[in-house]
Amino acid sequence: MGNCVGGNADASATASPTHNQQKQQKVQENHPEAHAHDATQSHTKTDNKRPGGHNEATSAHGTSSSTTPSTAGQHGKGNSAHSSGTAGAGVNAPKPAKTPAIMGPVLNRPMDDVKNYYTLGKELGRGQFGVTHLCTEKATGKLYACKSIAKRKLTNKDDIEDVRREVQIMHHLAGQPNIVEMKGAYEDKQSVHLVMELCAGGELFDRIIAKGHYTEKAAAAACRTIVQVVHTCHVMGVIHRDLKPENFLLQSKRDDSPLKATDFGLSVFFKPGDVFKDIVGSAYYVAPEVLRRHYGPEADIWSAGVILFILLSGVPPFWAETEQGIFDAILKGQIDYSSDPWPSISHGALDLVKKMLTQDPKERLTAAQVLSHPWIRVDGEASDKPIDNAVLGRMKQFRAMNKLKKLALKVIAESLSEEEIMGLKQMFRSMDTDNSGTITFEELKIGLAKQGSKLAEHEVRQLMDAVSGHFQRALSVTALCHF
């Protein structure tokens, strides 16, 4: 679930809740579930976070305190015999029975209507499990983001437990400068509503691309913030488990806006020595030990290392047309540092990337060690030399490809049932009107329009081109079906 929600559809996507679907892609940037088997066929959770909420503080051990709202009028005066002036009248009369509060099955607290406290405004984004609206707190006029999750999407006990754990973690991490704040959470008969700090500045990579230029020093600053978040989490006994660029949003559009970590829907509490076995995360960023089902907090360092790799080169270190192919490449662990732009990247930056992307988690740097590395420290070795524009071009292409994948899922997930979502492959094949095994530009444009997409023609063209990294007249149906 994305917690700090930006004022656009992409930002809201990072705020979507997780769901244990039996689908092919839950490990990537567009929220699907993947399979790996020992790294080749393992059930995977997605970054479609199931956000949960609670207005009361919750401890790391899962205990929570809920306060039942006072019954209207129970503190009022004047209904006694003395107030009416009739001695003894009504003194022994039976008191009317209080209507018991209806407990919400998800938050395990009395149900409450979010609209009692907030006015919901324009839609900011829509994902597979809910809709995000701008909201205004009635008491203060302050703006927040409200993510409303349909309870019918929480289909089993694990889903509900994931919601509760996320709320516990958000309360546990409250007050940290680079972690989004949860304002409160509410549950009614249909939905769970999460009110979060509003991050209107957009995603990290989008800001970098919009500027059109940046330096190693800027990359070091961004990575430093990310690893500071990781360090805070680890010190406080939390593994994030889904670090990726989309989960870091800028608080505002100001140039000096702080970067905020979001989306703790896959996060877990841990103690030293704990070993986790469930495969979660996003394909490009998942650590090899996660695919091997034996991991701990070191997996977060790997994911942060992948982000740094992309910041410096524009592409992830492991690339394939399918998620299974990405997993296989991650397990092989062969990273190409000989191709551009790596020969022109500073020795310090290259050294840090390699130490964060060490295959053996025991040999990998800790968050504290990363922060003390000479290249990443404030006023450290990172230079002001501009990074090659080709890196920005590749980064832009990578972002566009991910947006197409998200769109492909959103087109279906916004309006269809779980069973219909399983028809993802059929949708793409239906666009292939001439049964050629590929989808042409016209077929993609018409197919997306039929599903409610409002993309302009040039945007469809840009997204289509981004899938393969270059202009082409048709897309492989097989490749699309691996989203």
- In total, the number of domains comes to 3
| CATH class designation of the largest domain | Mainly Alpha
Relative helix content = 25-40%
Instruction: Tell me what portion of residues adopts beta-strand conformation.
Output: 5-15%
What is the CATH homology-level superfamily of the largest domain? Transferase(Phosphotransferase) domain 1
Q: Write the element-wise H/E pattern from the N-terminal end onward.
A: HHEEEHEEHHEEEEHHHHHHHHEHHEH
Distance between the termini: 19 Å
CATH level-3 fold name of the largest domain: Transferase(Phosphotransferase), domain 1
CATH architecture of the largest domain: Orthogonal Bundle
Shape: globular
Tally the helices.
16
Please list the strands of the largest sheet in the order they lie side by side.
1-2-3-5-4
Radius of gyration: 25 Å
Arithmetic mean pLDDT: 75
Sequence stretches where pLDDT stays below 50 over 5 or more residues: 1-91, 420-424, 466-483
- Main sheet attributes: strand count, strand direction, barrel closure: 5 strands, antiparallel
Report on this structure:
The protein has 483 residues and is α+β, with helices and mostly antiparallel strands. It folds into 3 domains: 9-61 and 107-197, Phosphorylase Kinase, domain 1 (2-Layer Sandwich); 204-390, Transferase(Phosphotransferase), domain 1; 393-480, Orthogonal Bundle (Recoverin, domain 1), CATH 1.10.238. The protein is 33% helix and 11% strand. It has a 5-stranded antiparallel β-sheet with strand order 1-2-3-5-4. A two-stranded antiparallel sheet has the order 6-9. A two-stranded antiparallel ribbon has the order 7-8. The chain starts with 8 loop residues before the first helix and ends with a helix. The model is unreliable at 1-91, 420-424 and 466-483 (pLDDT under 50).
